[in-house]
Amino acid sequence: MGLNLVVLVKQVPDTANITGDAMKEDGTVNRAALPAIFNPEDLHALEAALTVKDQYPDTKVNVLTMGPPPAIQVLKESLYRGADFVALISDRRFAAADTLATSYALKCAIEKIGNVDMVFCGRQAIDGDTAQVGPQTAEKLGINQITCVSEINSIDTSAKKVDATRSIEGGFEEVRSGFPVLLTFTDEGYIPRPPSAIKMLAYKNASTDVSSEAFDESYLDGESGVNTNLALWDIEAINADVESCGLSGSPTKVKKIQSVVLTAGDIKMVDNTQGAIAEMVHDLIADHTIG
Amino acid sequence: MSNKNTVMVFIQQDDGIAADVSLELVCKARELADRLGVKVSAILAGDKLEAEAKKVITYGVDEVFLVEDKRLAHYTPMPYTKVVSQIIEKEKPQICLYGATTTGRDLGPRIASQLKVGLTADCTDLQIGDHKIRDKEFTNILYQIRPAFGGNIIATIVSPEKIPQMATVREGVMKLTEPDANYKGKITPVSIKIDDADCMTEIIKRVREEKSVNLKGAQIIVSGGIGVETKENFQLIEELAHVLGGEVGASRAAVDAGLVSKEHQVGQTGTTVRPRLYIACGISGSIQHRAGMADSAKIIAINTDPDAPIFGIAHYGIVGDLNDVIPQFIKAYKAKA
């Protein structure tokens, strides 16, 4: 028996590879200078869903992302790896959403898909590292959650239960939950498969450039029909309450952003010579730092 | 604003013992509450915890809300969300703090979503201050301060329009102060019915091992970063740590590169440390790393790049290849000691 799965993914700036252009002179972040990538842990969540589909071929893997039009890139990458349906949740009224407003929009989109057995997502995104959107989405859906999953141990499709291993401090837990349930994945398991060249060709019509402000929807129902696997949803499409989205739905506000400025400390530079290092060691022994 | 509502801490317990991070947060809550002129409250849930509740009070809690039920012995999200959100809704604390552990990061977001309030993850500092939104003034609100965007910025987040203002804080970030056995606080038992429908997670097996690496307790830490380059070179880090009687630490980059295992990681996503001496070898000093070690009493930075940010917080700086510097360090120490 196949399952109905939703995978939540995010396009993020590659914060691990920050270049000199990443910060503007006024101390704000220059997003344009950062390469946009598929959030690493979300790729593991997608791989987990595709592994379930390998086991139960009737499984449908739906992938959702919320973001500006260029975020469609992560959806295309999901299709190339084997997702069945992808949707971009995009609307200017989602702008400046914090984790609460984001999880509300995702909840509305998941309800639009309907009859979902399990929702998968990465534990956290590398641009914020909050790990909040998963549990908040689960709460909004009124369903259980298993966070920090490294491995799904078994799925019982008739009893509608899943057994998973989750990482905790200094160890692990094996837990069981009925459906529907949301799982957040770490990068410990499910090494992502590469995109399939055959699928990339099949979906080539989906690679219309959508980076322009005017979103060209014509490709969504392309000639071959395969592109009906890709949808664009705005606030109305997911029946979301406008007030609960974007800035107005976000209780947290950014008061101040400081770019990191190092305060020059009282540093003593030591030459890279045996004599100078010996003198430093002597000082450290004298003040009982080492000894 | 004459808000007399409390500063509340969710006390995480593992096998009936309050987590270190929760006690650290109680100490911070005490400081914030004194500044605000209000009381500190705490939520403790589990099975047979009265003695532990008394212990929690000695760190400066005025009232512990104690919920005892066999089904709360081990944390699972649904019943804990029910218990904590019900107590918050009744007591209306102005601030509520959680440890940024797997438990706190599992529970906090659910509570925030249910109560439709803000939550800031992994704060490295909490302060009290004022804020203005359009023409509305908010006084004595919580500044939730955290690094963001790969550590290139430090953001101050506020959420004054919704109560409670909530934040998670990592273990080791806030200072644990000495308990006072005579501190007068009260235990208020709270009865909340937990039924089958709440218990959606069944724990089949739970394995926790004693940490083989004790970074938190170490007085001397020698840490390696990506500048160490190879596992072979990392043995030098281990050797220096061994000679000095210290523990081996690492930056996230070194852990990600597979030079050393994750339990050695120091920093915002690893362990926060405050040793007597911290030696950073081949570590550039990202803010996440510095957030986890900047309070060390003495810091020695060894790096080939004279512009590495780590020099900005170091007491001693050596510009050079760690493969040269460390053997000289070891030689000098063996000669003196």
List the main descriptive attributes of the protein structure presented here:
heterodimer, A: 291 residues, alpha/beta, 9-stranded mixed β-sheet, two-stranded antiparallel sheet, 6 helices, 26% strand, B: 337 residues, 2 domains, 7-stranded parallel β-sheet, 5-stranded parallel β-sheet, 8 helices, transport (chain A), electron transport (chain A), Rossmann-like_a/b/a_fold (chain A)
Walk me through the structure.
- The complex is a heterodimer of chains A (291) and B (337).
- Chain A is an alpha/beta fold and 291 residues long.
- In chain A, 24% of the residues lie in helices and 26% in strands.
- In chain A, strands 9-8-7-10-6-1-4-5-11 form a nine-stranded mixed beta sheet, sandwiched between helices. A two-stranded antiparallel ribbon of chain A has the order 2-3.
- The radius of gyration of chain A is 23 Å and the shape is globular.
- In chain A, 46% of the residues are buried.
- The longest helix of chain B is centred in the first third of the chain and has 17 residues, at 20-36.
- In chain B, the strands form four sheets. A seven-stranded parallel beta sheet of chain B has the order 7-11-6-1-4-5-12, sandwiched between helices. In chain B, strands 15-14-16-17-18 form a five-stranded parallel beta sheet. In chain B, strands 8-9-10 form a three-stranded antiparallel beta sheet, with helices on one face.
- Chain B has two domains: 7-198, HUPs (Rossmann fold, 3-Layer(aba) Sandwich); 220-336, Rossmann fold.
- Classes of the chains: A alpha/beta (291), B alpha/beta (337).
- Strand 12 (253-259) of chain A pairs antiparallel with strand 10 of chain B, so a sheet runs across the interface.
